[in-house]
Design brief:
The chain has 232 residues and is mainly alpha-helical. The protein has helices at 6-13, 20-26, 38-59, 65-76, 78-87, 98-102, 109-127, 129-140, 142-145, 149-152, 156-166, 208-231, and strands at 173-180, 187-194, 199-205. Helix 7 runs antiparallel to helix 8 (129-140).
Length: 232
């Protein structure tokens, strides 16, 4: 696995750490040893929810409390964090134990999402809330600035279905690819196929339904990218 230096990650985050031990801890999974990022992830989860809540409150004056909560949930869910972590190339900076590394832990959505939350906590502890808010807004980028509540508040399967129906295309087909792990911590992988468009995406989740939603979200994103490409 290719490695990314702490300095490179700092440039991407837009924050240079005064205490590099915080950065190192944020990138350390429990399989690697102690100290690790579990405690930082706990703080980061709360801080991220707070910052996103503030951003949404200031950006969307007409949304009700319920709609704000649903929009925030969409933006801070594991899959959203996973996608942001991939854009940051965070997997290349993680410190994992040998077993976790061999099993592909650097690609696991839960590990990447937790590490990103731990990074947010590390920034807060290193430089305070204002710097943290700047970093979160920078990391979220277009995901936050282009959020459309009317669409996001619908789940991904509904949005995909409506997109296909608008073009009078057949509905997608969801196929279970795998179910792994013990009963209390199973991971499901599902394929979403839009045969008429030659498009197949995959998603992973803690339930088959969650995996279908992730796969549908990937399909919606892929169709949007195709449309944007045609307009260029």
């Amino acid at each position: 696995m290719r490695e990314i230096t702490g300095q490179a990650l700092e440039r991407v985050l837009g924050h240079e750490f005064a205490d590099h031990a915080l950065l190192r801890t944020a990138l350390t999974h429990r399989s690697h040893g102690v100290p690790n990022n579990e405690r930082l992830e706990f703080i980061g989860d709360a801080l991220l929810n707070c910052v996103i809540a503030l951003e949404l409150y200031e950006r969307f004056n007409d949304l009700s409390e319920g709609d704000l909560s649903r929009l925030r949930s969409h933006l801070v869910c594991q899959e959203s964090l996973h996608q942001l972590a991939l854009k940051l190339d965070l997997s290349a900076a993680l410190r994992l134990g040998e077993g976790e590394l061999k099993s592909g832990g650097h690609r696991r959505p839960s590990i990447l999402a937790d590490a990103l939350e731990a990074l947010f906590a590390a920034i807060y502890l290193d430089a305070g809330f204002a710097k943290l808010r700047e970093a979160i807004v920078a990391v979220y980028g277009d995901t936050l600035s282009q959020a459309q509540p009317g669409e996001i508040l619908k789940d991904a399967k509904t949005r995909l279905q409506e997109t296909l129906q608008a073009s009078r295309l057949p509905l997608p087909r969801y196929t279970l690819l795998s179910a792994q792990g013990a009963a209390h911590e199973q991971r499901f992988r599902v394929a979403c196929e839009v045969e008429s468009l030659g498009l197949t995406t995959e998603g992973e989740g803690s339930s088959r339904r969650a995996a279908e939603q992730v796969a549908a979200e990937e399909a919606v994103r892929a169709l949007a990218e195709r449309e944007a490409g045609r307009k260029r």
